[in-house]
Amino acid sequence: MDISPILDGFGVVLEPANLLYCLIGVIIGMLIGVLPGLGPGATIAILLPITYGIGPVSAIIMLAGIFYGAQYGGTITSVLLRLPGEASSVVTVFDGFALAKQGRAGTALGIAAIGSFVGGTVSILALTLVAPVVAGFALDFGPPEYAALGILGVLLISSVGNGNRLKAIIAACVGLLLATVGRDTFTGAERFTFGSLNLAEGIDFIPIAMGLFGLSEILYNLEERHNQVHSPAKVGNVWPSRKDLGQAKGAIGRGSLIGFVLGVLPGGGAVLSSLAAYALEKRRAKQPERFGRGAVEGVAAPETANNAAATSSFIPLLTLGIPANATMALIFGALLIQGIQPGPQLVTEHPDVFWGVINSMYIGNILLLIMSIPMVGVFVRILRVRPAILAPITVLITLLGAYTVNNSAYDIYLVIVFGVLGYLMKKFGFEPGPLVLAFVLGSMIENSSRQSLLIFGGDPAGFLTRPISGTVLALVVIVAAWPLIRKALRRKTPDRVEEKIT
Amino acid sequence: MSPPDPTRPDPTRPEPDPPGAPPLDDADVLQAEADRLQAELEEARPPHAGPYAQLGAAVVALAAGVFGVVVSSTLGLGRLTQPGPGLWPFAISVIIIVLSATLAFTGRGLQDTERFSRSSLLTVVGLVTLVGLASLLPVIGFEIPSLLLMFVWLRWLGRESWRSSIVISVGAVAAFYVLFVLLLQIPLPRLI
Amino acid sequence: MTILVGYLPTPEGEAAVDAGLREGRLRGERVIIVNSPRRGAPVDERKISDAAGTELLRRAREAGVDAELRQPLHDDDLPGTFEELIRECGGTLIVIGLRHRSLVGKFILGSEAQRILMEASVPVLSVKAPAVRAEL
């Protein structure tokens, strides 16, 4: 393997400007991870206009920093307040909060930070080795493969996310439909434009993402009742003792592995892997009853796994051009804006982006380790800020940012429209994530399926006879029918299910 | 939470793990614990809205699908050998129609909607200020509309005191001015 | 009848509790220690932990006073929160600690204590923190 592009990547990262953006990214990530309310998706969406101002590499380094920084930050509230900042930190609550009640909050946070660092770093190393191989494999992919992969990606995100599956797929289809607005690339016909010049260019990704992820979340949070106020928690000594580290060692190792593997899967990799890692540790433990009462492994395993998964979820994006989750969809969009098509060609055509982003994660994880062990007290203080003060500031950043993209108020209105749509979707139980993801992939899926039909001479059976697209489409069918399959399997083996419950 | 009903999917529960994931023996127990925590967190949210809201949501989705079918069929579907511009949107719209019809029939018992409450008025007020900002911004610059938006959000949506609302909104807009206009030199419309 | 004591974990708050407990024993009235955090933020340093609350109640028991701890949330209307408690429990007296603040500080931050003094419907006993706390 030729390592010179990897080393060049370090050169890119170590440029002072990029180091600064990495630092800014991870600090913002930590902050919003600690603060309840705005998640990393919303934050990245709101900051998308920045990508116009700074170069693609710097922008993606910063946005990625926000993404994995939030994984570190989410731990703090789980441990101290029993309030998971992120879905992937939910299981951390069980043992983390128990430890905090015993006055060992510092130990929990320290172990979580070290686990996150190890998990993240192991995952980056694996990513460095695996990603170019996957990308090389995918180089032969033609339009049929991409069409099939795109459909699989959309379907998986809709299936694995929170909430009702039917609603998620409907939302995804609406996203696909929105992607068709504008001039058709094949025939030049105007679709769904209704004579509007603004719509003829199609709908930009930025206002959709800012509205559906950013503004909708702010509007939705306005209705939150804040009836819980906690007294300040003492963090104490954050350096875990040798004994704690010894206890957590195995959990951290296994968590890294589980996180890396599950993170590659599109969908809720980070959430799923934290659950899986916790369950595995509990099953392996000599005294499983310690779990839930302050077991160090119960903090180490899920935190390691969710960070490893957050890192490895970059693989499908950087190698196949298929975002694995909603946040990756945003980064995908940010790259497209810069005229960079994420996919197998990325590693050869834009090695600076590819290796720059990957290598920045080493630096980011080191920065996060520094920030979350000695500086944890600083971030805990953020919890005293009232969301009511932050909300209008975020709104202003969103709207003014939207304006700066094209210097037009039209974009602000667009953000507002999609903000309302996202708010209503949340109120009626539809996740905006699948819609945004499908919108991002929409034109790719349409173009490649139409190209494929031309290749096949109009015979859709061609999708099934090619080995890779056929396999992927078979997976699509399995995923689509998974609830039915699962039900059938359960009915056949009722004994095993009962055994599980007791 | 109501006891799980095996005939319908539980909305708060993520769908089963995708194929390929290792089997999780304790996952069900763990999921139940996570659900309990989730339910506790959701106490801060309004209660669920009942079957009519579900039906309404499905009907709106259905209408979007019908609209898509109508518009895309006027665009021309073409043939599979020569797909027209309307074929792809047509196919998606048909899927939307099928799925939302299914949702209308099966989804009435779901509990994932939220009732609109008095606090939803806050969202409406917030929305009005957003539209106000968007319409005033090109006319009189960003300073005054931003100041007004900040103040309304702090004083009436956030129930801050008069004093801190004024201080924070003035401070924030001044900070925006320094950051956006003086330091980053972003071309925002300005008062002067 | 009840005495309401405004308590924050500061020297002024301690002084208020001392004065409130003395007053409670003198009048033979029940004391409600009011520790009201601001609604909104996940953490408010004014809210005391359960352990600190137990300690306050222990102090009251030692002083021979029947005491209770309440921790209602308030928005920007702390005097209103006190008024509600007065109506609910038949309050006869409010005890609060005052802290010295410069004019500018008062203008920017406002003073909850001052508003209670002005708006309360029952007599208010205000105490200062001792320069050097002798007892406690």
The total number of structural domains of chain C is: 1
Assigned CATH architecture of chain C: 3-Layer(aba) Sandwich
Which of globular, elongated, flat, extended, rod-shaped describes the shape of chain B?
extended
Largest interface: A-B, 97 and 99 residues
General shape of chain C: globular
Percent range for β-strand residues of chain C: 15-25%
Give the overall pLDDT of chain C as a whole number.
86
* Proportion of strand residues of chain B: under 5%
Task: Specify Rg of chain B, calculated over alpha carbons.
Answer: 25 Å
Radius of gyration of chain C: 14 Å
User: What is the strand arrangement across the widest sheet of chain C?
Assistant: 3-2-1-4-5
Residue share in helices of chain C? 40-55%
Descriptive overview:
The complex is a heterotrimer of chains A (502), B (192) and C (136). Chain A is mostly helical and 502 residues long. Chain A is 74% helix and 1% strand. Chain A has one domain. Chain A contains 25 helices and two strands. A two-stranded antiparallel ribbon of chain A has the order 1-2. In chain A, helix 5 runs antiparallel to helix 16. The C terminus of chain A is likely disordered. By secondary structure, chain B is mainly α. Chain B contains six helices and no strands. The longest helix of chain B has 25 residues. Chain C has a single domain, classed as HUPs (Rossmann fold). In chain C, strand 2, helix 2 and strand 3 form a beta-alpha-beta unit. Chains in contact: A-B, A-C, B-C. At the A-B interface, helix 8, helix 9, helix 11, helix 13 and helix 20 of A face helix 1, helix 2, helix 3, helix 4 and helix 5 of B.
Write the layout of secondary structure elements.
The complex is a heterotrimer of chains A (502), B (192) and C (136).
Chain A lengths: L3 H10 L2 H19 L5 H7 L3 H4 L2 H26 L10 H10 L3 H34 L4 H18 L4 H15 L2 E2 L6 E2 L5 H4 L4 H17 L20 H23 L4 H16 L11 H17 L1 H7 L5 H12 L8 H4 L1 H22 L3 H6 L5 H20 L2 H19 L4 H24 L6 H4 L1 H26 L1 H8 L1
Antiparallel strand pairs in A: 1-2
Chain B lengths: L26 H15 L9 H25 L11 H20 L13 H21 L2 H15 L4 H22 L9
Chain C lengths: L1 E5 L4 H17 L2 E5 L15 H13 L4 E4 L7 H12 L1 E8 L4 H7 L2 H8 L4 E5 L8
Parallel strand pairs in C: 1-2, 1-4, 2-3, 4-5
Family (chain C): Belongs to the universal stress protein A family.
Organism (chain C): Nonomuraea fuscirosea
Protein name (chain C): Nucleotide-binding universal stress UspA family protein
